[in-house]
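#help-structures
NK: newbie question, is this the right format to request a structure? protein is cytochrome-c oxidase
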Amino acid sequence: MGTIVWLASELMFFAALFAAYFWIRNATNEQAAAGNTLSLWDASTQHLDITFASVNTAILVTSSITCQLGANAAEHGRVNGSWLNPLKWGLRQAFIVTFILGSLFVGGQVWEYFTLFGEGFQVSTNAYWSAFFLATGFHGIHVVGGLVAFLFVLARSYMTRTHTHEQTVTAHVVSYYWHFVDVVWIILFGVIYFLR
C-alpha cells in the first residue's frame, strides 16, 4: 500500500511537470502566432534527434520486459537460472540485464544532453530548453533511483542463502517502480519528441 501511495505522489509530481510544459508551450505559441513567426517550440524541436531517442526508448521498454521476467522468477522462488534461455532466467539474470539496459538508457540521455550542450542549448537558453531539461532530467534521476534499487535487490539475493517472501515482495515493489518510470518516459517521449 505504501508503494502505491508513493507512486501516486510521484505521478502528481510528473503531472505538475507536464502542466508546466504545456503551459509554457501554449504561451510561447500564442506569442509566435501574434507576431506571425515560427514558434519557439517549432524552432527548438527541430534540434531533437528522434531516431536516437526512439532507440533509447526501445532500450528502456525492453528493460521493463526483463524486469518483469525477474519479478516472475522471484515469485516462483527462482533466484538463479540459465543465461542461455531468457524464459528460464532467475531473478539475478533478469535484474542484471535490466540494470544494464537501464544504465544504457541513462548513458543515452547523457549523450543527448552533451550533444545539445555542444549545439549551445542549456537549461538557461529559453523556456523550451528549461522545460525539456527539467522534465527529462527529473525522469533520469528517477531511473538512477531504480538502478540503485536493482543493485539493492541483487546484493540481497547474493548475501542470503535462501530466497524469502520478503525478497519476493521487494522484487515486485522494485518492478512496480520500474514500470512506472517506463510509462512516464513513454508519455514524456511522445509529448517531447512527437507532439508538435
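mod (FA): yep, format's fine, and the C-alpha cells are attached above. DSSP finds six helices and no strands in the chain.
NK: thank you!
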